[in-house]
Amino acid sequence: MRPQDVCNMRSIDVERTGVWTYRPFTHKTEHHGKILTKAIGPKAQSILAPYLAEKADNPESFLFSPADTVRLQRAERRAKRKTNIQPSQKDRKTLNPKRVPKDYYTTGSYRKAIRRACGKAGVPNWAPNQLRHSAGTTTAAHFNLEAAKEFLGHASIKTTEQYYVAPLPELAAEVARKIG
């Protein structure tokens, strides 16, 4: 999916029968009258299931929320404390903070969250769109270009060819071995 589609994911938009499908309430090509439907396979289902269960009581809320993340981080910090908390300190927050976490990620805040996590983990930075590019390249390598086009939701196969098919040197080597 595009980062925008991940950020906009709500449980009300996910149909969970058979192969799950996700229809975002807004997307890049909606002004062309297109309806976007994304299939969600078993690996992604297992990742999404806890988020969907957590939001079962409020299906129109966004699955991935910076406000929820901050709340969980604070709860973890409290649980790891070695000393007792004074009653007056139980729920100490800044009364008027300069920045309040939103209920949803924007594509920019999503990208920043990934960069911060990469920095903390000591791994090279990457961008959310790299996941989409990798999925498109993998699909084209394992199936074919038409499958990659459909999986990515492109209207034209030319877009898939131009942006999502990485060179596959191992395929070229296999062809060379077979042909001579």
Brief characterization of the structure:
This protein is mostly helical. It has eight helices and three strands; from the N terminus they run αβββααααααα.
Secondary structural class = mainly alpha
Count of β-strands: 3
Mean pLDDT: 87
Tally the helices: what do you get? 8
Please tell me what the overall shape is. Answer: elongated
Proportion of strand residues: under 5%
Whole-number radius of gyration?
21 Å
How is the largest sheet built, in terms of strand order?
1-2-3
Quote the distance from N terminus to C terminus. 39 Å
Helix content: 40-55%
Q: Mind summarizing the main beta sheet?
A: 3 strands, antiparallel
Low-confidence stretches: none
Order of helices and strands: HEEEHHHHHHH
What does this molecule look like?
The protein is built from eight helices and three strands. With 180 residues, the protein is mainly alpha-helical. Strands 1-2-3 form a three-stranded antiparallel beta sheet. A hairpin with a 4-residue loop joins strand 1 and strand 2. The protein is elongated.
